[in-house]
Amino acid sequence: MKQNVGVLDSAIRSIVGVACLAVAAEGLFPQAITIALLVIGSLLWVSSSFGVSFIYKILNLDTYPSAGHGLTQWYPKT
User: Strand 61-62 relative to strand 73-74: parallel, antiparallel, unpaired?
Assistant: First the structure.
C-alpha cells in the first residue's frame, strides 16, 4: 500500500500515540476511558509505524514527501 503519512506527521502521531498508551497503562481513568486511550494510542502508533493512514485515504489527503508538494495535498476524486 502506498504511504500517505509524512515525516512530521508520523513523528506527531508516534508521540501522541505513545502518550495515550502510557496514560492508559497508568490506569488513572475509568475503564471506558482507558480502553479508548488504548485503541486510539494503538491506531496512531501503528499508522505512524507503517506510514499509512486509512482516514487520509478516505479523505484523499497525502502528507508523504514523494507527492511533490507542501505539507498537505487534497486530491480531488477522479
Answer: antiparallel
| Paired residues of 62 in beta bridges | 73
Whole-angstrom distance, CA of residue 31 vs CA of residue 61: 34
Give one word for 5, left, alpha or beta, with left for phi > 0 and alpha for psi -120 to 50: beta
Domain ranges for the chain: 7-74
Q: How far apart are CA 5 and CA 66, in angstroms?
A: 10
Q: Which residues contact 34 (CB under 8 A, 6 or more apart)?
A: 24, 27
CB 42 within 8 A of CB 14: no
Instruction: Quick: pLDDT tens for 21-47.
Output: 999 999 999 999 999 999 999 999 999
